[in-house]
Amino acid sequence: MLDSLQPLLWAGLIFTVPLTLLSFVLGLSLGLVTAIARLFGPKPVADIARFYVWVIRGTPLLVQLFVIFYGLPSVGILLSAFPAALIGFTLNVGAYTSEIIRAAISSVPRGQWEAGYSIGMSWSQAMRRTILPQATRVAVPPLSNTFISLVKDTSLAAAITVPELFQTAQRIVATTYEPLILYIEAALLYLALSSVLSLLQTRLEKRFARYGGFLEART
Length: 219
Hints:
CATH class: Mainly Alpha
Number of strands: 0
Mean pLDDT: 91
Strand content: under 5%
CATH superfamily: MetI-like
Helix content: over 70%
CATH architecture: Orthogonal Bundle
CATH topology: MetI-like fold
Number of domains: 1
Low-confidence stretches: 213-219
């Protein structure tokens, strides 16, 4: 286990962590745009956003990765493993976070919009200064859960040859013939990373809870 720990940690730092962070940041941005398009966009744009969410949420993530990495070359689109995984995870995260963000924005009372308009704010100003800060407080717990799930989902990238933590464990198993030890070790590393993120999530939720109390006291 000690001999395999270093390559597993290295694979996690070089591939798993960057893939998780990049996918979540890009997916969150895509989710915000998609949510706003569904709530406030013209009907054709809203329909496109709704179709995208429907397709991604209705198909397995592994199948999406296979379509991008193994399917697109048949139409002349060649992608290396890491960019293909990044695109797949970004599209998947974007669909799920869009629903979270859409629900969070919808939960903000209509009076908050009217209050913003009454003091001369434009739609974008009201969204940026009034609506999104309140929606963020609602969205933090489910978005944090999505992020933690994404850490574990990155193991699926091994299926399209990304040398992340889990595939590194598979390669070591192929030479040592110790699957039980190696897979348990990989599982423990995922568990440790998820536990750290869970602690950060708890602290973040407490901070936003205090912020929410402050807002309620002001109103």
